[in-house]
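Reading a protein record of the kind used here takes little practice once its layout is understood. The fold follows as a row of integers, each naming the local backbone shape at the matching residue. With these conventions in mind, the following record can be read line by line:

_____
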Amino acid sequence: MGYQELHCETAMALCQLPDSREMEEQMIVYGARPSPFVRKVIVFAAEKGLTPDVQPGGFGQGNEMFAQASPFGKIPGFQDGDFLISDSTAIITYLDTIRPDPNLIPTEAKARARTIWYEEFADTILQPVGMQIFFNRVVAPFLGLPSDPAAADAAEADRMPELYDYVEGNLPENGFLVEDRFTLADIAVACPFINIGYCSDGLEKGHWPRLKAWLQAVRARPSFTEALAIEGKAVNRMMAK
């Protein structure tokens, strides 16, 4: 997924943006909170000091505005006034442009490339494996859909260890993935791991000390703790099935 981020270049341009209260009241994220992609947008927005309204979307839910924002039913959908878009990367690019600070996508070339790589890794490598686990163990039983427990077991046993190894081996001693600080890379990679952790103890049983410490630290950030507390009730209902 490509990024074409446009930062505000002058204080004059910033002054022309609507104030934060106005923007927050206009912004709506459509989707299910337990989705890693929806959570990624919610957390990214929170780190920017924004609190969009979260409304249902996907899985047969969502109003006409969601359908316009996401004509293919992709979540999250997003609305800011008359601006409508879907896909977490597109939404984050928009939020980062209208609210450049704090900087969560590095501007230095190598750090920026690594950050985008980690988001791509999370979206297209880690999440598809994690979805095999979370969907078959949690989502499908909750929705009454056919599930494949064997596929979940295989993903957990055969695929996850190499992904745990990869992150463990690339985490610097400082505890952040890129540039010795918290960035989009940490948000993006943590989100699929959180879903996997809802229904798998594979990480806890294995020897990945840096990964465990990093994930614990990321989850402890206010942006994550608030999002996880709100989604917790929905996850508990799903897990109870």
Summary: The beta strands are 27-30, 53-55, 77-80, 83-86. The chain is about 60% helix and 5% strand.
